[in-house]
Every structure is written in C-alpha cells, then in structure tokens.
Amino acid sequence: MKARILLVDDDPDMRELVGSFLSQNDYEVQTTDSAAGLRSLLDGEAPDVVLLDYKLPETPGAVPQDIGLTLMPGIRQRWPETEIIILSGHGTLDVAVEAGRLGAYTFISKPFELGKLMADLQCALEHKAQQAENSALRDALATFSGLNSPIFKSAAMQAVIRTVERIAPTDVTVLITGESGTGKEVIADLLHSLSKRNKNRIIKVNCAALPRELIESELFGSVKGAYTGAHTDREGLFRQAEGGTLFLDEISEMPVDTQSKLLRVLQDQEVRPIGSKVTYKTNCRIITATNRKPEEAIKEGKLREDLYYRISTVSIHLPPLRERRDDILPLAQAFLRRFSAQANRVINGFTPAAIDRLLNFDWPGNVRQLQNEIQRAVLLSDGPMIDAADLSIARSPDDTAVSPDTNFTLLEGVERNAIIQMLKATGGNKVEAARRLGIGRQTLYNKIKAYGIKI
Prior knowledge:
This protein is of the alpha/beta class. It has helices at 12-24, 35-41, 72-78, 93-101, 114-144, 155-167, 184-193, 215-220, 237-240, 256-268, 294-299, 305-311, 328-342, 352-360, 366-380, 410-425, 430-437, 441-450; strands spanning 4-8, 28-32, 49-53, 83-88, 106-109, 174-177, 202-206, 245-249, 270-271, 280-281, 285-290, 314-317, 349-350, 385-386. Strands 2-1-3-4-5 form a five-stranded parallel sheet, with helices on both faces. α17 packs across α18.
C-alpha cells in the first residue's frame, strides 16, 4: 500500500515540484495551500506524514504568517499516529527546537534537495511503523497478559510472556506444548499479534479434526480432478496463510506420511498442490502445538523426529493450571466480567467460600474448564456474588460435586435465571411473571419446582 503524504504549502511551484517528485516515487500525495485548507482535511483519513510549511496564510490568497507550528496540536489531536515534518525558508534554531517540542519528527530548511527530503521522509515512515509495532505490542500484552485486567500472574506464565515478547517479531518456528485447555491457541494468537505479519491472517487448523484422506489437499491445495470428488481447485491452507501465520494444532495427530511432506515444504519453502505439476513459493510463519510430550510422541511413532527438530526452533511449554494457581483467581475474575456482561447480570465477584473452592480444585480441564465453570455459575447464580453452592466443582476429590438442584444444562440455566430475574422484577407475583414470560401459570409453577427456585 502506498504511503500517504499531505503537503501543506502556499507556494504553487513548491506544491507542483514536491508533489510530482513524490508521486513519481510511488507515494500518494495530497496538497493544500492554507491553514483553513488543512483544518478542512482533519476529519478525513489520516496521512502517514504531513509536510507542513512554517509560514502559511490563514486562508487561500491571504498574507502568510508564522502559524505553521500553531497548527501542530490540532494535527496531533486528530491524527495522533501521523508524523510531521516542518518545512521553512525562515528557519532558526529556536523554531526547530519548538517544532521538536511540539512533536515534529524533523525540521527541513528551504531550499532543500529532493534527495534530502526523500531520506527524511523514509525515516519518518520507518519511525511511524516502529511506533505502530510498539503500540501493537502494548495492546496485545494488555489483552493477553493483563495490564488492564491481569490474567497471567504466575511466575511460570510471566516467563512465557517474556519469551513470546522476544521471539514474536522474528519468523522462527515455534512449538507450543501443554495439556489440553492450557491456552496454546491463546499463545499462538499472541505470537501473531506481536509479529510483523499481524496485518495478515492467522490460519488455524486442528490436525486431529481433518479427515485423513483430505488433510493433504487441505494443507497444500489440490487441482480439479486430482482425486474423486475434487470438482474444483482447492487453494490450501498454506496459500490462505500467505504473508501471515499458519497454526497447526495437535501436530502429532497428523499422519506420518503427511508429516514427511510437510517437512519438505518447510525445508524448500515450496508447495505443490495435489495433482499439480507446478510448485509455488510459500511465505508464512509456522506455529505448531501438541498436548503430547514430544519425546513420547516420537517414541510412539506419532511424530517424526526430523520434523520435530524443524518445527521446534523455539519450544514454549504451558504448565497446567494446577501448577500455576496464582492464575486461577485473575482468570476467574476476567471470565466473570465477560460472562456477566453477556448475560446482562450485575455480579460483583466471588464469596470467600467460592474463592476457596476455585483455588483448591485441580482443574483437570485447565483454563478451558475454568472458563466453562464460570459461565455456568453466572447463569445459575441468584445473588450479586458467586458462592460455592453455585459451582459444580468439588471441594476435594472425596466431595460430591453438586446438589441435584443445580445440575442443569446451560440452556436450563438460562431459563432458570430468566425466571428468577422476572420473579424479582414482579415482587414475587407469579401470575404477572408468567404473563411477562409468555407462559402459563401452571407451567411457571412446574418450572419453579423443577429448578428448585426459592420464592
């Protein structure tokens, strides 16, 4: 995509010369000749760089004044990511210093060589790109590691995040290991979000879910007639992920013969669709994951050893939730905020008994189980706090999990919660509650009894 440059200068010859030069060098150029002209553009799409003359007329044809710098705060406010280069034929050191203080990238004195302008412009664009990368890093870390809503509090996961932060900008292959539900896909998303490929797609595929007879055509593509049922050309996941990231989950469940073809693709950076005689270059980053221990998968013949060395330039292991209990409560609170908002409920947190139950459970299903448990509790709870009785998990392996009254499906839980909320809204008036819910009075009585709702 062409970089967008806005040139603000009242000299028509300057606008023609610089505009033509930049257009010839593959920039998209827009020009205006006054402060009023600049202000009229501030509601539009932000340019990448503004070339701003220090001496400008307020309106077209008026007498130029030293007002260029006074326009900078408005530009910074409306286009905070745009770089500004000040141009001036009356430049002094004081003006240059003030321009820098206001946030200008650089100051260029007129007359200037077009080569000098081009060099400064390219540096400004590189600086803008670097700032965008840093912003993406901060945003991604705020989302995943919790600068705004802390999630990863344990030392183990903080170490994982530091590793991700270091390797994400590179193109090294990454193998993520850990039990099911530990968050391997979340880490893959984070690696992609912090990479230079984040403007392109991350394509995700669960190798265990692909039919054995179709996995190669899904990965590499195929041409019409390559096999029975191939009625059209298939693009393939490598081509879909071009310029971005391809995440191969449960890599050890991929057939071994397909693993050998994948290894060849990774070595040659070329893909040949099934049934085609033509190969094409591929450019995507490979991230893989498995819930098996790689050493055991290799011994069992589930994972080729040579492929393992190719995909594990960097290995990231996610410990199970029971080994990082410092993450349990922050995760639970994050899920509570999300699901209570979705259910339009006001739930303020967990009671001490619920917190004790959450922290002392071993979570065999890891983060995924915790997420489902909190969603269920939000739907089934009656009060402003999640209590231990709202949780289906046992206090210990010897405890019973839940009382029969709370053993409902999610759909039943939604219905139960809707009835409770309506009874509260009608002050316990069952006739009015039934009318508002659109059900018969006897039906409401039956559901109140079945769901164990206390009036």
